TrEMBL record, chains A, B:
Enzyme class at the top of the EC tree: ligase
GO cellular component: cytoplasm
Name of protein: Histidine--tRNA ligase
Matches recorded under CDD domains: HisRS-like_core
HAMAP family to which the protein is assigned, alphabetical: His_tRNA_synth
Reaction catalysis annotation: tRNA(His) + L-histidine + ATP = L-histidyl-tRNA(His) + AMP + diphosphate + H(+)
UniProt xrefs under PROSITE patterns: AA_TRNA_LIGASE_II
GO molecular function, one term: ATP binding
Organism whose genome encodes this protein: Candidatus Shapirobacteria bacterium CG10_big_fil_rev_8_21_14_0_10_40_9
Amino acid sequence: MSKLKFQPVKGTRDFYPEDMAFRNWLFGKMREVSKKFGYQEYEGPILEPLELYAAKSGEELVKKQTFVLTDRGGRKLALRPEMTPTLARMVAQREAELPKPIRWFSIGPRFRYEQPQKGRLREFYQWDIDILGSEAPEADAEIIAVACEFLKSIGLISKEVKIKVNDRSLMEQKLSLIEVPKGKIQEVFKAVDKKEKMAEEEWDKWLKEIGLTSLQVKDLKGILKDRDFSRESEKLTRIFSTLSDLGVSDFVEFDPNVVRGLDYYTGIVFEARDVKSKFRAILGGGRYDNLVEVVGGPKIAGTGFAAGDVVIEEVLKEYKKTPKISFCPTRVLVTVFTEGFFRKSLEVATLLRRSNIETELYPDPASQLDKQLKYASQKEIPYVVILGPEEAESGKVTLKNMATGKQKTISINEVGRVIL
Amino acid sequence: MSKLKFQPVKGTRDFYPEDMAFRNWLFGKMREVSKKFGYQEYEGPILEPLELYAAKSGEELVKKQTFVLTDRGGRKLALRPEMTPTLARMVAQREAELPKPIRWFSIGPRFRYEQPQKGRLREFYQWDIDILGSEAPEADAEIIAVACEFLKSIGLISKEVKIKVNDRSLMEQKLSLIEVPKGKIQEVFKAVDKKEKMAEEEWDKWLKEIGLTSLQVKDLKGILKDRDFSRESEKLTRIFSTLSDLGVSDFVEFDPNVVRGLDYYTGIVFEARDVKSKFRAILGGGRYDNLVEVVGGPKIAGTGFAAGDVVIEEVLKEYKKTPKISFCPTRVLVTVFTEGFFRKSLEVATLLRRSNIETELYPDPASQLDKQLKYASQKEIPYVVILGPEEAESGKVTLKNMATGKQKTISINEVGRVIL
C-alpha cells in the first residue's frame, strides 16, 4: 500500500473496536469501584483558561507540557493537562449548595506535550476520584482503599503492585531536623520526586545547587532509605490502621521517596507502582487542602488521585493480565439469500431486534451467501440466520451455530431462546 | 459570594453529577441502539492534523469554525470539529484487514468556534454512526432506521420530530433541468442549505450573484416546495420502501430543502428536525462515497450520521421528555455514632460493599449523627445504617428507610435483602 496521506498526530491513538473494547472494560472497572464507594460522576470542559493551571499545578506542567491555543478573541486556552484544577473550580463555583463530603469521580481525556514513550502519550485518559470537605485521615485512607480495590478489580495482586504512601508534613519535619530552611523545602521535594530518574552524581549536584551541604545530602539519603518512621506521623498511623480495617493492607506501604510532583499537595501523598519499578506511576495522588481557595472558593480540604490508562495497559501486559474481550456486539447475522428474499430477511432482523437480540442484516441484497458467511466468521459473529425458499415456504428459518457448524431449521420465535 | 477568579471558557460546560447523569443516560441510549444493529464502538484522537479537514469538510467549517493550535514543532493541529474525516482516515489505514461492511459508531467531544446560543456550544458531544463498504440504498435505509429507533428510545414521537430525506443526485438532475450549469451546483446547494436562516430577498440576491436568472430562482423555489417527486429517484424509492419494512415510515419524509452543508456528501442526505423547526438539526448525515479515497485510502462507499447532545437536550426539554434520573449511586450511608464506633462502622461498610451494595461511610469520625442524617437526606440516599452501643452489643445494625422514616434493627446479613 502506498504511504497514507494523513498520519495520526504523534502521541495520539486510534481506538479500533478491539482497542475500544479494552478501554470500555477498563473505564467500566473504574466506574464500578467508584460507585461501590458511593462516588458520583462529573465531567468538566476539555478547554480551560490557561491561568487555572498557572495557579498551582507547578511550573513544569504549565510552561513545558501544556498544549496552549489562542482563541480568535486572543484568550489563552489550555487543553487540560490534569483534572484537579477543574474540580476545584467547579466545587468553588457551587460550594454553598453541595452537601459535604463531596465524593466525585471523572474519566476523560488529558493532554500533555511530552516526548511519547512507553507508558506516556500526549493525548491520554485519566480517572480522577476525590473526596472534598473532610480533613480526616480516614478520608485519605478511603481514597487509597478505592485505589486498592480498583487494582484488584483489574486482576493485579499485591505481589505485582504496591501503593506507596507518604506524608509531606512529616517530610518537612524531617528536613527541618537536618536544618533545611523552610524556603528550600519545595525545591528539595522537587529533587526527591526526580531522584529515581537521575544518576546519583547529577542528583547530588542539584541538591548542592539548591544549597544543601554534603552532610545534609547524606542525611537526606538516610531519611529516604529509612522505611521505619511512619509512626512518627499520627496521620499515617491512622491511615495505615484504617486501611488494615478496610482489608487492603497488603497493597500499601510507607515510602519516604514519594512526594509527588504537583505543587498543590499539602499532606498525604501516594502513588501505585509495579514492584519492579519498570513503569511510571500507575496512579498518584494526595491531599490538597488549599486548592479550592486558590482558585477563588472558600477553604475546602480535598484528597484524591488520578490513574492514567496508558501505564495501566502496559502493566497489565507485563503481568499477562490483559483480558480477552469480545469486541463485536452482534449475536446474529441475518443473511440475504437472493435479492428477492431481502424483504423477508429484513423482517426477521427487525423481529430479532425487537426481542433485544443484537442483530446485523447483510446490507447488500445482491451479495453471494458464501461471502456473507465469510463475513460472519471473520467478525466472529456466533450465529447466522439463513432464509431461503424452503424456509420461506415453511415459515421457518435456518439457524447456524458458527462455532460448531451445526444448523437447524426452527421457527423465528425460537431463535431468541437458542441464542440468548 | 465574590466574583469567582476563574470562569469556564465560553461555550464549554461543567457537568455536575446531575448533568453527567443525563449525559450518561443519553450516551447509553446511543450505545444501546448502535449495538442492537450490531455496530462496533471506535474512537479517534481529539487532536488531528488540520489538513485532514481541509480535504473535504467545507470551507466554513475549516476556515472559520475550527480551533487550531500550533504545536511546539510548528505543526498545525485541529481540535476535531467532526468525526467523519477521522473515521475515513482510520478505515483507509487498515482497509485490507477490516471485514466489510464496516459498521462502526463513536461518541465523543467535538469543537467548533461558533457563537454560543440555544442548541449550539463550542465544546459539545456527538454520536457518529456509519456503515462503510456498501453502496446499496438499503444501507442508507438502515442508518436512517437507527436514527428513528434512537429518537423513539429517548421518548420522542413522530408527531414531534421528523427525518427529512433527500438525494443530492436527484437535486442535481432537477437543477440541470432548469439549466443550472454543473459548476454552479455546489454553490446552489450551499444557498439551499442556508435558505431557512435568511430573508427571502437576501437569498434571492445570493442566487443571482451565483449567476441564476430570476426565472431560475423562481423554478428553484418551485422545486423546493414540491414534496412529490421522490419517486423519480430509484434510490429514494428503495429507501422509503425499506424504511416501511423496518417499521419506521411514520418518522420519515422526503424534503428537497435538505442538502446538508458538508462538501463530502455524494448522494442521500438527511436530517432530523423538530416539527416546529424551532431548533437546529437534531441529527444529520448522508452518503459520502469518495471520502476514504480523498484521505488516501481506496474507494470505499460510506453512509452515516452525527447527532449532537446539545440540540437533543433542548428538544427533550421543549417536549417535556427530559427523564428524571437519580444521580447518586449510593444505596446506603453507614453513619459513625461516635469516634469509638468508627472501626465498627468501617467494617459494616466494607461488608456491604463486598455484597455489591453501593455504600458510603461518613468519613469524619467526630461528626454529629444529626449532621450525617442531614447529609443522607440532602443527597437522597435511600437507606442509612446506624450502629451505636445497643446495636454493637446485639451484633446488629439499625437500618433506616429515609423515604418512610421507618427503621428496624436487623443483622448485617439481612441488610442486602432489604435494600436490593
